[in-house]
Amino acid sequence: MKSEPDTYSIDDLARDVRTHWDGIRNYQARNMIRDHMRPGEQAFFYHSSCEVPAVVGIMKVASDAYPDPSQFDRKSKYYDPKSTKEQPRWFAVDVEFQSRLSRPVTLTEIREKKSLGDFRLIKRGNRLSVFPVSAKHWNIVQKLAGG
DNA sequence: GCCAACGTTGGC
DNA sequence: GCCAACGTTGGC
Q1: What dotted CATH number matches A2-144?
Q2: Which of A42, A53, A66, A84 has a 20 to 30 Å separation from A119 between CA atoms?
């Protein structure tokens, strides 16, 4: 799961421990959290759009998907006038801090690692903020971090 | 349904 | 700030 550290970083999550992962406004990403994420599953925390884009930590999915409250909040930048309580368009999940990687695994490193060649993160045109990670890729990234 | 215009993501 | 690679919107 990607987040811009200027907006919400692994430090913020370590402090909050648990948070609402909201503001997802892409249908594919929404489908991912609504239809495929389950409580107890693990996820990587990835810092995007920053000086050193990198996988920085591990978190745990802490809830089922639920309608993202910000879509109904007129004052939120995530407000969606086309969304109704009866038929919400957007969903959020709760996540819990689990750990930091012993060191960040940078995007550069990931690109250089042959065995991560088919990792979705570096697939051309990938802009999804939420996407599944195979067990193989999960393990390789962890190993790179030294754990 | 097509497609141009526009908006967003995210690396660089 | 630039730009590629998308996704979305809306006119037709």
Answers
A1: 3.10.590.10
A2: A66
